[in-house]
Amino acid sequence: MAALQAPLAKSLLELEGVREVLLASGHVTVTKATIADWEELQEVVEKEISQFYQAGKPAVDPDAVESIDPQDFEEGSIEAQILELLEERVKPFVQQDGGDIEFVRFDHKDGSLYVRMVGSCSGCAMSHATLQEGVKNLMDHYLPAVKQIVGLNDEMDEDVPRPGR
């Protein structure tokens, strides 16, 4: 989503020293530029967020919100079950660390679940462990039809078909 569609992200990105902003349903993650000092930047960022919300502005343009709703799939389908597990059991923990996980697709032929880690999780060395130990173990327990987890990055992801595209 472009910062123009997310006024809070646009406002934060205009602050000197802010490199990236991730907005999730209950979290705002700000990544600082390498040269920035977080102790100096933190107060400025917190003040900007407080003023933004006090002004009553929407963090994201409601027309720009992208999500894959479990109801986009047939009730009880493997995709709907995967989305429910990701939303309820994976996302809250990943978002606490400043990242997020996105469902891309499920391949019924070989049981591959394609997901993408974003925010601080996209470049984190632990994201592989999160996917292969955390998410895979969860799927093994609840949805044995998921045989493997494939983590995509932005470059790989462009050629992967998505639901609704």
TrEMBL record:
Give the originating organism.
Answer: Effrenium voratum
Listed under GO biological process in this entry are: iron-sulfur cluster assembly
What's this protein's name? Answer: Uncharacterized protein
Origin: domain of life: Eukaryota
Q: Give the transmembrane region(s).
A: none
Question: Where does the record place the NIF system FeS cluster assembly NifU C-terminal domain?
Answer: 83-149
Name the protein family. Answer: Belongs to the NifU family.
Q: Per its UniProt record, what InterPro entries does this chain match?
A: FSCA_dom_sf (IPR034904), Nfu/NifU_N (IPR014824), Nfu/NifU_N_sf (IPR036498), NIF_FeS_clus_asmbl_NifU_C (IPR001075)
MF terms per GO, please?
Answer: iron ion binding; iron-sulfur cluster binding
UniProt domain Scaffold protein Nfu/NifU N-terminal: residue ranges: 4-56
